[in-house]
């Protein structure tokens, strides 16, 4: 056959990375660099209440919108790679009837413990109690105010010099909430326990096994050998239309940062498998 009539090779699969609870897309820096060096387009999203979207409250609809935007920004075939909350979110997104035909696979890490049932509801209730206790303790000591106040301060332009407000103003008004400079607040920010309760509320009642079963694409499960959330991995694997399970020795729940080289090798193999099925 004349070479001019051959079908040109498909471009490498694009990838959307989705982080876990109380972190951000920054956890995927190693993987994004690894894929871009190999010629893939790759982006790492920030879910609501995390990273650059920390002013938003977490909801599954908001998380789906973040994935919709990320997928729309990438060319060609797309794979999702999610860790923990990001893995559950990716599986739920892929299970929807309107999931894009461009989706070719999901790599779900640290999320083979089905969130449907009493354990997640119990953990959510414990987290809600902890959040209330932490908030009350910090209010009593005056160290930190409610997260909504911090979010308002983050909209203030970054200052070149540290900013310190007086502890009280004329008339006794308490200005301790502006004691931290906006720049310092951004650097010190960590998602609060409120994020945990919101996230678990939206996960409770959603079966990740059912989502795997509904997904029309291959699903690879990647767990660290020391991850306590490995329970249920065989159920998830059995539910996958085309599935694979990889357990990385020596790693825990945050498998992509605890064993980045091994995770990257698995990621490369998974993308090759997704492309073959596509």
Automatic annotation (TrEMBL):
GO terms for molecular function: catalytic activity. It holds the Pfam family Abhydrolase_6. SUPFAM superfamilies: alpha/beta-Hydrolases (SSF53474). Transmembrane segments: none annotated. This is Pimeloyl-ACP methyl ester carboxylesterase. Residues 15-265 form the AB hydrolase-1 domain. PANTHER family: ALPHA_BETA-HYDROLASES SUPERFAMILY PROTEIN, HYDROLASE. InterPro entries: AB_hydrolase_1 (IPR000073), AB_hydrolase_fold (IPR029058), Epox_hydrolase-like (IPR000639).
């Amino acid at each position: 056959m004349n070479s001019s009539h051959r079908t040109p090779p498909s471009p490498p699969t694009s990838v959307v990375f989705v982080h876990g609870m109380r972190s951000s897309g920054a956890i995927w820096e190693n993987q994004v660099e690894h894929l871009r060096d190999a010629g893939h387009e790759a982006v790492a999203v920030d879910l609501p209440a995390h990273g650059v979207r920390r002013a938003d409250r977490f909801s599954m609809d908001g998380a789906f919108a973040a994935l919709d935007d990320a997928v729309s920004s990438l060319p060609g075939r797309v794979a999702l790679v999610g860790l923990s909350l990001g893995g559950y979110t990716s599986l739920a997104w892929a299970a929807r009837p309107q999931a894009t035909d461009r989706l070719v696979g999901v790599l779900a890490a640290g999320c083979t413990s089905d969130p449907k049932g009493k354990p997640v509801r119990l953990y959510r209730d414990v987290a809600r109690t902890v959040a209330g206790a932490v908030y009350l303790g910090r209010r009593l000591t005056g160290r930190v105010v409610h997260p909504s106040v911090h979010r308002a301060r983050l909209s203030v332009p970054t200052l070149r010099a540290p900013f310190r407000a007086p502890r009280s103003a004329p008339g006794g008004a308490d200005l301790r909430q502006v004691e931290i400079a906006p720049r310092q607040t951004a650097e010190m920010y960590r998602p609060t326990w409120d994020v945990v309760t919101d996230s678990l509320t939206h996960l409770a009642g959603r079966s990740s096994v059912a989502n795997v079963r509904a997904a029309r694409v291959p699903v690879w499960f990647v767990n660290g050998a020391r991850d306590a959330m490995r329970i249920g991995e065989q159920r998830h694997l059995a539910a996958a239309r085309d599935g694979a399970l990889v357990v990385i020795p020596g790693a825990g729940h945050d498998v992509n940062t605890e064993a980045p080289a091994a995770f990257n090798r698995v990621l490369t193999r998974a993308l090759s498998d997704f492309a073959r099925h596509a």
